Amino acid sequence: MTVDSLVSAPRFHCWTPPGVYRPQTDTALLGRALCRERITSRTEVLDLGTGSGALAVEAARHGARVTAVDISWRALAATWCNALLNGQTVRIRHGDLAGAVPGHRFDLVITNPPYVPAPPADGPPRGPARAWDAGPDGRLLIDRICALAPAVLRPAGTLLMVHSHLSGVEETLDRLGTAGLRAEVVDRARLPFGRVLHSRLTWLRESGLVADRTTEELVVIRAAHT
To answer: What share of the chain is helix, strand, coil (3-state, %, to 5)?
Structure first.
């Protein structure tokens, strides 16, 4: 699935305003994994860090009841508009990860969190970088999602998360396992470094995160209760 094919249904519209993460290869990978799940009109889906809402709308098109969460009001506005433009219903919630839906559990949780390693900075990422910068190890939100997943999944629920190999795939699998979930990599794609990674290539090499290679592997991790 390409990015275009993710939104290639008849007359699919995806509006992405400045400052909101535009659907890219990671979005498409997660969308492909989403399409492999059994989704019915009774499936409740949580999209953590929805961004433009492309995946929330895709889940709704499959018949799911979708809740989309983001800490960015602009992202939620984009999600609301994209759901409206595509004739879908998506419930919008503002907040920090699952804190926006306290006490609720879901059949499927999908998330494309920030995962790009970033040089140490004073305070959390701000502005557009909040959509991709994730601390020196790229795990600023990944670790939190691993910890909260069991509490937001129903007993037969599933988590789908995409991130880069630069952020530690094995660590994510280990953390999800420690949390009581059975986790595995279900999809992969390798692509050249984009603008952001190229801009910090020297720091990435000095930090030992990359050597000579200037490609990254994206993976989709699927986790479920054991």
So the answer is: 35, 25, 40
Q: Alpha-carbon distance 216 to 141, whole Å?
A: 19
- Four-point Cα dihedral 132, 185, 54, 87, nearest 10: -160
Give dist(CA 90, CA 157) in Å, integer: 19
CA gap 44, 217 in Å, rounded: 30
Domain count, the chain: 1
For residues 16, 22, 20 and 185, what is the CA-based torsion angle, rounded to 10 degrees? 140
Distance CA 90, CA 82 (A): 9
Helix ranges (H only) for 47-200 are 54-61, 73-85, 142-152, 169-178, 195-199
Query: What CATH number did the domain enclosing 39 receive?
Result: 3.40.50.150
| CA distance to 114, 135, 210, per residue, from 122 (Å) | 18, 11, 24
SS3 109: strand
For 2-57, the pLDDT digits (tens) are 454 554 454 568 999 999 999 999 999 999 999 999 999 999 999 999 999 999 99
Domain of 63 in residue numbering reads as 3-167+175-225
Separation in Å, CA 78 to CA 8, 30, 90, 162? 18, 19, 12, 21
Q: Give the model confidence (pLDDT) of 9-19 as tens digits.
A: 545 689 999 99
Its pTM stands at: 0.93
Residues contacting residue 178 through CB under 8 Å, at least 6 positions apart:
none
